[in-house]
Design goal:
Blueprint lengths: L11 H16 L12 E6 L5 H12 L3 E5 L13 H8 L5 E6 L4 H8 L4 E6 L5 H15 L5 E6 L6 H10 L5 E6 L8 H9 L5 E4 L2 H4 L5 E4 L10 H7 L7 H4 L7 E3 L20 H19 L6
Parallel strand pairs: 1-2, 1-3, 3-4, 5-6, 5-8, 6-7, 8-9
Helix pairs in contact: 1-5, 1-11, 2-11, 3-4, 5-6, 5-11
Length: about 300
């Protein structure tokens, strides 16, 4: 039995296999329509979510399975003080696989240690978000045709952004990757990510404050929102929330083949006018998220479709 806690749980070869499966699902959805008939997915979401929860549920329904679960901690026995380990022991009696989002870092890891079914980490605090990373990798591969030899701009909340941390962990395993880290001083990438991941693997990167300075050299621009829920006081959030706004004017200085990604939800960091730009790929990214989670469910349940 396998779990997914981090993008590093899959080797590069296994990732390539998973992404190829997702591409086949996109091309031939009818072939997989009953692959999970009789199987149940539990979504245990202790934090609000739209895309991550619904895409897991859509993925299982598309595979012919069924779903159950809760969308907030308030609607679970967590309000009565039930531990994560007790919850997963219970859910293991009902479902065949589960996806868990939790505000505490490491909570899905605790769950997988006590689970009798595969556990998917659907986001834990500011730590990891591996299924979003799988979505990002599939999006980049489909749009650019490769996952190596690229300059990736990561913009916004690089301190608390679990999507950014997971994506860096995954991409440093490919050759020719360079990063441009675009953030205000207060939201810089944490030291442990720079020292233990980028420096340790000799991955070239530079840190800039102005988005305009980075745009001309990018193959991918990965925008993120400033996350209100990660701030301890309202004042700091208000000061930071509109630090970066990507608009039509700024896009003029970007390469014509650059792609703009965003894990969503967005607030103000991408102007609505950018949606019409052919380089805006964030809603395609949402669709790819369903295909890659279908592939992940099949992989963790060890279900093979001829």
């Amino acid at each position: 039995m396998r779990h997914l806690m981090s993008p590093l749980d899959f080797s590069v070869e296994e990732l390539d296999t998973l992404l190829s499966l997702a591409q086949d699902i996109e091309a031939h959805p009818e072939k997989y329509a009953h692959a999970c008939a009789g199987k149940k997915l539990a979504t245990l979401f202790y934090e609000p979510s739209t895309r991550t929860r619904l895409s897991h549920e859509a993925a299982m329904l598309n595979l012919g399975g069924s779903i159950m679960g809760f969308s907030t901690a308030d609607s679970s026995s967590a309000t009565k003080g039930e531990s994560v380990s007790d919850t997963i022991r219970t859910v293991s009696c009902y479902a065949d696989i589960c996806a868990m989002r939790h505000p505490k870092e490491g909570a899905p890891m605790v769950a997988c240690e006590h689970s009798r079914i595969p556990v998917i980490n659907a986001g834990d605090g500011g730590h990891q978000h591996p299924t979003q990373t799988l979505t990002d990798l599939l999006t980049i591969k489909n749009l650019k045709g490769r996952l190596d030899n690229m300059t990736i701009g990561l913009c916004g909340d690089l301190k608390f952004g679990r999507t950014v941390h997971s994506l860096i962990h995954a991409l440093v395993r490919y050759s020719g990757i360079k990063f441009v880290l675009i953030s205000p001083e207060e939201l810089r990438l944490p030291d442990y990510m720079r020292l233990d991941v980028l420096d340790k693997k000799n991955v070239p990167y530079k840190e800039v404050v102005r988005l305009e300075d980075a745009l001309p050299e990018l193959d991918i621009l990965y925008m993120t929102r400033v996350q209100k829920e990660r701030f301890f006081n309202e004042e700091d959030y208000v000061r930071m929330k509109d630090f970066y706004i990507l608009d039509r004017k700024k896009m003029k200085s970007a390469p014509q083949d650059m792609q703009v990604l965003h894990p969503l939800p967005r607030v103000n960091e991408i102007a609505v006018e950018v949606d019409e730009d052919p380089r805006a790929a964030y809603f395609k990214q949402v669709q790819y998220g369903v295909y890659v989670r279908m592939a992940l469910i099949l992989t963790l349940l060890d279900i093979h479709v001829d």
